[in-house]
Design a protein that fits this description.
Elements (H helix, E strand, L loop, with lengths): L1 E6 L4 H13 L3 E7 L19 E5 L5 H10 L4 E4 L6 H6 L2 H22 E2 L2 E2 L4 E7 L23 H20 L3 E6 L2 E2 L8 H10 L4 E4 L5 E3 L1 E2 H14 L4 E5 L4 E3 H16 L9 E4 L14 H7 L7 H14 L1 H7 L3 H10 L3
Bound molecules: nicotinamide-adenine-dinucleotide and thymidine-5'-diphospho-beta-D-xylose.
Thymidine-5'-diphospho-beta-D-xylose (TDX) binds next to helix 6 and strand 10.
Length: 352
């Protein structure tokens, strides 16, 4: 049986990963270390309550004592590091916590893994550290071309700079000590349990409540959308079969301008809810994000050719599944949008 230290798995992608893995593997042990920041939510893990294959530990990936204790207690085969501060807008107003968690936290995990897995120049067999990174580390594309694994890192936001820095430390541990690692760099995920500070759930929530839809700039920035379950599958495949020391880009020629996404959500909810108050009149173009990357687009050839992964969910199917989930989980949304979310929203969008 394989034992995993998974971090940040009370968040969006991590909680989806927990469901994916427990569904796929009958015999598995997941130890989920999560600090439960504003983005971490135990309600995301309700479906695995009582399942002994999933153990939740509340704590910080920066906490050396705690992480060392976990390594002493469990014989981890894998570390899969999802834990991060993940929102670009928050990184623009408060970069320090991004350095703390995304860089220092990752280095702490690397060190604790090395302390346990490495002895007198030799690594224990079958171990691997997988860093969940992002296409944003490559910077921004013009109208043409795609991000390849060989594209130089050129991050622009404090968030993507912290993720690029973490990636470099992961590679440094591979290059310096021979640590068995992989890095995955995926494009924008969407699906169940995504916190409504991100474009798709924010728009779904606002449309439903007839609130204005804040579209940054001209709405023509392009993101390459990936259904979260397809991403979870890719991470599992990389952990299982990725060549050591390699980076794998995860995405799938699924690029859409933001305004297309917003209009799709409006049309879907208008029809589904039969609500005449839902229309494109809700769209409000607002001041652009500072340093807003224009276009992301992933070339997924490497992961397809080496591991046979491809994005199985077309956007048209994934967005309907996503909207279905949010409509069926109004209580989840009302819990996460009470309290601090309201304060965040007012502050974030006050001058827009
Ligand atoms: P999220 O913000 O939904 O969840 C992050 C989780 O990490 C939360 O549960 C939070 O409590 C936890 N966390 C934060 N700081 C922590 C700390 N110091 N110690 C322990 N836990 C901590 O993020 P997400 O969207 O699920 O993203 C997961 C990972 O995937 C991140 O590393 C992110 O950079 C990367 N990624 C996300 C996307 C996307 O579209 N969402 C795309 C590419 C890459
Ligand atoms: O209110 C909004 N209006 C708007 O126009 C918000 C929240 C976003 N946008 C735009 C900005 C982006 O061009 O929509 C696009 C998507 O924005 P986000 O959902 O904030 O995602 P993005 O900044 O692209 O980053 C996401 O994908 C890569 C994740 O948050 C990162 O964690 C991941 O690494």
């Amino acid at each position: 049986m394989k034992t995993y230290l998974i971090t940040g798995c009370a968040g969006f992608i991590g909680s989806n990963f927990v469901y994916y893995m427990l569904n796929k593997y009958k015999e598995i042990q997941l130890v989920n270390l999560d600090k439960l920041t504003y983005a971490g939510n135990l309600e995301n893990l309700k479906g695995v309550e009582g399942d002994p294959r999933h153990i939740f530990v509340q704590g910080d990936i920066c906490d050396k004592e705690l992480v060392s204790k976990l390594f002493a207690e469990y014989d981890f085969d894998y570390v899969i590091n999802f834990a991060a501060e993940s929102h670009v807008d928050r990184s623009i107003s408060n970069p320090e916590i991004f350095v703390q968690t995304n860089v220092m936290g990752t280095v702490n995990l690397l060190q604790c893994a090395k302390n346990t897995w490495y002895n007198e120049g030799t690594w224990k067999t079958g171990k691997k550290f997988v860093q969940v990174s992002t296409d944003e580390v490559y910077g921004s594309l013009g109208d043409e071309g795609y991000f390849m694994e060989t594209t130089p890192l050129c991050p622009h936001s404090p968030y993507s700079s912290s993720k690029a820095s973490a990636d470099m430390f992961v590679m440094a541990f591979h290059d310096t000590y021979g640590m068995p690692v992989n890095i995955t760099r995926c494009s924008n995920n969407y699906g169940p349990y995504q916190f409504p500070e991100k474009l798709i759930p924010l728009m779904i929530n606002n449309v439903k409540n007839h609130k204005k839809l804040p579209v940054y700039g001209d709405g023509m920035n392009v993101r390459d959308w990936l259904y979260v379950e397809d991403h979870c599958k890719a991470i599992d495949m990389v952990a299982e079969g990725g060549r050591l020391g390699e980076v794998y880009n995860v995405g799938g020629h699924n690029e859409r301008p933001n305004i297309f996404i917003v209009k799709t959500i409006i049309a879907q909810l208008h029809d589904r809810l039969q609500d005449e108050g839902i229309s494109e009149d809700l769209i409000q173009y607002v001041a652009d994000r500072l340093g807003h990357d224009r276009r992301y687009g992933i070339d997924p050839t490497k992961i397809k050719e080496e591991l046979g992964w491809y994005p199985e969910t077309p956007f048209e199917v994934g967005i309907v599944k996503t909207i279905d989930w949010y409509l069926a989980n109004e209580e989840w949304m009302s819990h996460v949008t009470s309290g601090n979310y309201l304060k965040y929203y007012e502050e974030m969008y006050k001058n827009k």
